[in-house]
Structure of Amidase:
Amino acid sequence: MQPFELTVEDAAAAIAARALSPVELVDSVLDRCDAVEDRLHAYVTVVADRARRAARQAEREIREGVHRGPLHGIPYGLKDLIDVSGIPTTASSRAWAGRMPDGDSTVATRLTDAGAILIGKTHTHEFAYGLLTPQTANPWHADAVAGGSSGGSAVAVAAGTALFALGTDTGGSIRIPAALNGMVGLKPTYGLVSRHGVAPLSWSLDHIGPLTRTVRDAALVLRTLAGHDPSDPVSVSAPADPPASSPADVRGLRVGVPGTYYFDRVDPEVDAAVRATIDRLRELGATVMPVELPLVEYVEATQWGLMAPEASAVHEESLRATPGLYGPDIRLLLEAGHHVSALDYLRAQRTRSLISRAWGRLFVDIDLLVAPTSPITAARRGQETVRWPDGVTETVTDAYVRLSSPANITGFPALSLPVGRDSAGLPIGAQLIAAPFAESVLFRVGTALEETRSDTGRLAEVAQTDIIHSASDR
């Protein structure tokens, strides 16, 4: 096994035992970048010289007995919305070409303090306002989308060009690419991870979180990221420090399975894989019970009613000054947001409060929900719509956001983890949702599920050939 194939947990153990040096690990990851990046385009910028200097420093520190924790010497990727001093933050947009931040984001500071080593900035769908990341290729199949908007981060982890990466999630932008690339993606509780120094899309929906190859790795990274930051006005302190790991025992846990919404209009192979995961939890000793989700008919309107005007407000001056520097799809969305009235925005805020309170009451009787992350696996490049057997047609973007946006509206923590692959070899993700600050429940259940699988932590195969979908038009 090459060092780039190690999980964060295994690499950290090897570094602590002096069986692996940060220099060896970073060199392995950079060599992997050289081998696959021309096919995948996960990165906007690779800072190889900076990474090698940081690796040598980490090696010296560890040799001298200074060990900063489990991320010391671990190479990672950072979504290109997240500021690092001396490295451009472009948001994958011509509007921000060459933009140089004057300081580090809080999450970058915390990772540096923990000894993690930045490999580079990963591609995002422009300004995180999309779910495809068209610049980046899915490593499992060459003609499939990577998902987004944190597609570059997910692909870097899936391909071994980072051991972990950070993304942002406004309507599913961590969890969707995690599911489509066979990775673990965590959207923490709203406010648990600081957003200071991170380009906003929708300030009331934005979250920062890790993409990793295992649930245990996600827990390790979150422990470093979480904590109150006075620079972020919505930052909160968790009731307790997030655990670095959780016992893989689900006995006694109450698992809610939605009777509607999450299993409406879902590809049969996705449905089967997620229901098999639920059966596995039952076999492991969890109590599985049906639940009815309240107010789901308002989810889509609430998501767009919040996100569209907030995103347009963020970009109002820049869009007016340089509209031609935005991609046509993003410019159209930003212009549309100007037509949402203040009254409609206030209605969306009120409805969000009603949904959050109603969903919060669910967790009096259950410990978590289990559902699909996405109703379909990775769409083909150029595919615009999904046709369902009941005659309904929806856009690929609407299909992806439909099952992920409730956790953004409520702010509840949600974890996507791989639970299988479809007949075309594309990964399938299951989504676990818990009450606020109950990330430990997600880690506990996710780890238990991973221990039942033989492919946990598996890297993608970095396919070079086209694929044939079992249902060509979905």
